[in-house]
Amino acid sequence: MANWVPLWLHKLGSPPIFYRFAGIVRPWALTLAILAAAVALYGGLVLAPADYQQGDAYRIIFIHVPSAWMSLFIYGAMAVAAFVGLVWRIKIAEIVAMESAPIGAAFTFITLVTGSLWGKPMWGTWWTWDARLTSELVLLFLYIGVIGLYHSFEDRRQGARAASFLVLIGIVNVPIVHFSVNWWYTLHQGSTVRLVGPSRIDASMLWPLLTMMAATKLYYVASLFARVRAELIASEGGKEWVRAIALGEDARS
Amino acid sequence: MTPGSTCAACVALFRRDLLLAWRRRGDIAMPVLYAVIVTTLFPFALGPDAALLSRIAGGVVLVTVLLAMLLSLDSLFRSDVEDGSLEQWMLAPQSLPLLLGAKLLAHWITSAVPLIVIAPVLASMLRFPTAAMPVLVAALLLATPLLSLLGGVLVALTAGSRRSGMLLALMLLPLCVPVVIFAAGAVAAAQDGLPFAAPIAWLGAALALALVLGPLACAAALRIAMDA
Amino acid sequence: MSHFFAMGGYAFYVWTSFAVFFVVLLIDALAPIARRRRHLRQLRSRMARSEARRRPGTTA
Fold this sequence. Notes:
The structure holds three protein chains of three kinds. Chain A is mainly α. In chain A, 80% of the residues lie in helices and 0% in strands. Chain A has helices spanning 4-12, 15-47, 61-88, 91-123, 131-151, 156-188, 203-235, 240-252. By secondary structure, chain C is mostly helical. Chain C has a domain at 26-53. Chain C starts with a helix and ends in a 6-residue tail after the last helix. The A-C interface holds A 30, 45-46, 50, 55-57, 59-60, 63-64, 67, 102-103, 106, 109-110, 113-114, 117-118, 120-121, 219, 222-223, 226-227, 229-230, 233-234, 237, 242-243, 245-247, 249-250 and C 4, 7-10, 13-14, 16-18, 20-21, 24-25, 27-29, 31-33, 35-36, 39-40, 42-44, 46-47.
């Protein structure tokens, strides 16, 4: 059967091959991400009509919701990489997990800030202790904790393994936080604030949203690969293939 | 020489930790003193209004106890890392999770029990209603071992690293949010005369789960963090 | 055109959100490129140093 898939994955675990593969994929992903974002922004800011309830303020949805989705998606991707890295001790998987964390933290930060900026005109407050908002804040703390733990170790691989374990603890924690805040909020207050007002969304607003989601996904791939390449140069500095790259780039510049 | 049984090793470790704590009695008093100072400052900051104080008393006591525990958690494995006994336990034929369980139990007794004893005094200083006091103590009895176990896993993760301190607080915050919510929820419900069994039961369920998984996770984290 | 930038009175909220989005992601995109350059530069100088150490005594 398809014997090449495991073989290809196995090869990808080798740092020089991953470095070259990432170098080929990265410009394409970045270009496509910028194109998709431009199309989505044109659709969202110009073509889509104003919402009959929220006016033009709803247009924040086109960055807020994709960022929120990415903050969870990247955590999931990071957890899978962390698990693979811990169980099979694959160096590339550890690096992918650790380099995902800053991107995830960036998207979580964007989600929180744009959410506040959207909440102020709509609900009249910058912040409310709603389950979703609190979970997002806890997620940001988890990301920062993972980054902090990773950098607190002298030995980078040891730090990556300890932080990977923290990632796996966190993935159990986030649903528990969401549930407990939900329980707590309903105890204190009758109704929860709905983050996304209308459950049904018009097609003219839906397609820019989905395009933006695709753009953020592609951006994640591009940013992750750039980070993994930089980290590989740093951690494999003594190896022959990295020296060849260093000399090659020197000759070109 | 045949190795002793796991049970004997656990008892020996437990007694050693209690003895060490007893030799340094001043260190046990530190978290208690810290909790007293923090709760005394609240009335000065908020004014002596009895209604306001009694409304926030439960939450203030819970958060203070949590922070005081954090203070002592930081040094949970420090001396054992420094004098090499931690490596000895990891190499020992006895099961590491059970040894760590004994160590966490000793830590809970030396750091959390004094805080639980002092908590009713602190709460009544803040005009906490006496009728709800048993619920506060029950919530603390369930929440503090939970925090010890969760904190133990995180301290184990930072055992091989250079600095912890603030990092430990940062990592513990996401994990202790549910604990604080349920403990404070039970206390607030008891204060308002509402049924408080549900949050107490949730805390108990979480504690039962943590009692089983905590030492295992702690051992796994220690093996990862100390793996050179 | 000014109607477009006014965003129905929500200009501050909408444009600040988009600015935050693009500024944060721009920083995120530029950081690894700078890091890679820095590491390569350090590596080159390290290699040059070890090369210089070896050269004076050609017999070694």
